[in-house]
């Protein structure tokens, strides 16, 4: 299954094999026109009926469904997923989706975008952060998904392709039935928790390798990588962890259309996140300890280098002292008239230097 926003066909469902050949310029224009979505920014849409898999919806079918009267007896619900980088996506949603104003306000908000689920009148508003589809262990590869959820309509919007949405879309395309809008949100949260667990496992494996090298005193160049991994875990914990107070408020005062089993689904999703986040916090502590260990190794190496530099200075002290004395060109210099005076002085300097070298070698071996 291709990535979310990176399917093997056109946005209207045309398979790749049926596309006419296009040169680089035509493909570039097609990319600019589509942004991984159709003409109105719709990446994918599905209509779910009880006990059945989701049926794909285009913009026209979604518009006809949205224009149905509120007392329509359709037992199913619709999920519409939009790409906000498309210029027509937000205007289309504002004109046809009848979403609460809070949904558009939180999309345009410049402040905190921590993961949370809160009630907005008769709907639920979710702000979910997940890693991008091309995630490469960079702390900046985290993007936001905005979700408005009612009893019969789920609208999600993003600016970058996300892993959790891609997994949910793949599950729907495989024919997995989803009973309700809350079940879809729970599935999305579960996929997000699984992705966070995968990142934690990969980061923990790398930390294990670094720890082995540090304990073997071979890892003296991992300070930058440890700092990057710690920044990654801190950012994931800060952005992906759902706000517990907001979720508790939703569970304590849910919309009237939410059944008891649906509240239980959200509670289980919050518990799954708590388990994963405890593992992430434990990994943060391990990385902090390894940073201290790496700093101690660097300090030890600096001390040994300084000790070696000091010993070299001490070993050079006799010859420098004698050279300074002999270079004064004053009367009374010892052995000035002796036929072997030069060699006698050289022998004395060699003996003193050898004694100092033996002492320095002994101190070096005793050093930790």
From TrEMBL:
Keywords: Cell inner membrane, Cell membrane, Ion transport, Membrane, Transmembrane, Transmembrane helix, Transport, Zinc
Membrane topology classification: Multi-pass membrane protein
SUPFAM superfamilies noted in UniProt: CorA soluble domain-like, Magnesium transport protein CorA, transmembrane region
Location(s) in or outside the cell: Cell membrane
Family: Belongs to the CorA metal ion transporter (MIT) (TC 1.A.35) family.
Main location: membrane
The protein's name in its UniProt record: Transporter
Organism: Azohydromonas lata
Domain of life, source organism: Bacteria
Residues spanning the membrane: 306-328, 340-361
